[in-house]
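input
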Amino acid sequence: MVLLDGRPAAAGELAALGLTNYGHYTSMYVTDGRVRGLALHLARLVRDCRAVFGADLDPERVREFAGAAARGAGGGAYVVRVTVYDPALDLGSTHRRAEPHVLVTARPAGDGAATPLRVRTARFQRDVPEVKHTGLFGPLHERRAARLAGWDDALFVDGAGNVSEGTTWNAGFFDGRGVVWPRAGVLPGVTMTLLQRAYPHTVRPVPAELDGMEAAFATNSSFGVRPVGGVDGRDFPADHPVLDALRAAYLAIPPEPLA
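output
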């Protein structure tokens, strides 16, 4: 299912994503036509469209296109990705006045199994981390390197030696007193934001040594809350009670209808 502005996309209209790759996106987990945190996903697209293109984006139009893709995909659970880009922009014209278009794709979601992640740290920071942009080479390169070395993924550490985020997920911790989210240059994920609203926490720098941390977890819209079972060979429990509490808090948030 690949729709551009609500209609099937032609191959030539997708060339700009492969050749220029200038745009932004959000990915939503859709079940029964409903999305947890839908308003945040739409607000992100509107905010990032202004940042990336200096243009306004109609959130109701996006909602309509995403709903059509979800309905066309059939029953079950799907990950619907909304990508905003201008098919007319090339490497020499990114400065021109843009006319953003909305590309929507839908793919079946995974089986929901959230096995613990074992990650290694890497010194890295995404370009323009506050925007969910399509420039994923750096994070995916770090993920590839981690997997080739026997890990599941990479956890980024900034220039000050503090944890920031995972490759495509936010990271959180439990320090024996409460949930801690890293204060660093990160993408403010929808799942992280929902949990911050629903569950008590603090936001502070988290040194990469993770001294005093008793549990670690990853969050994103595709899997919700997932245990991190190890960082650089240091083990964390996958069954810590705080993980169950976070999952319960997340699942208690009512999803919003796409249509």
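quick obs: The first strand starts at residue 2 and ends at 4.
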